[in-house]
Amino acid sequence: MTTPNLPESTVAPFALDEDARAALFTSARSAIAFDDRPVDAALVARAWDLAKFGPSSMNTQPLRLVMARSAAARTAVIEAAMPGNRPKLEQAPLLLVAAHDDRFHDHHEVTAPGMAGFHERFESNPEMRAGLAHSGAMLQLGYLIVALRAEGLALRPYGGFDKAALDASLMPEGWRAEVILGVGHPIAGDDLSGERRGRIAADVGVREL
């Protein structure tokens, strides 16, 4: 199988075989239609436990997830979304809200045990803490998307929604919504995403200095 915009390796054999690379990247799509099967919470937990090992700044882990399972929670997510995205979200068996935790540094004894002054450094600098909470959560979200695909799930991220509304209706204290994910099992044998759009090649996006 040849994937557009993906050159053959000329350096060394790929560490992951073709099937694994296809499942995680080259054949995976942002899905808007899903199989009817529900998504087991255990799959999300397994993806979390895989994604948490991705590298992050000082091993901080500010990403948090809310699984909107109840009718009330699903309605809150869908109503907060941009009108054009609501029908797509309604089709997703599971809605996840990826958030950051403003108090991520409270878990420093797990993520940075014995690091002197860690908690005090972030507690005394809310601006620095907020910046790392956002950037770190978005970095971890990238790992999570790949991990969800590794569990055989399809998904689509959505950034257009009323974050303040979701913070007020669903988020625990200190959590701030970042991205909505519509998640489900893919429909076997069907490509419902249309023609794949192009990607910028390495000779455009990479510079060696």
TrEMBL record:
SUPFAM superfamilies: FMN-dependent nitroreductase-like. Its EC number is 1.1.1.298. It holds the Pfam family Nitroreductase. GO terms for molecular function: 3-hydroxypropionate dehydrogenase (NADP+) activity. InterPro entries: Nitroreductase (IPR029479), Nitroreductase-like (IPR000415), Nitroreductase_HadB/RutE (IPR050461). Residues 29-185 form the Nitroreductase domain. Keywords: Oxidoreductase. PANTHER family: MALONIC SEMIALDEHYDE REDUCTASE RUTE-RELATED. NCBIfam families: PRK05365.1 (NF003768). This is Malonic semialdehyde reductase.
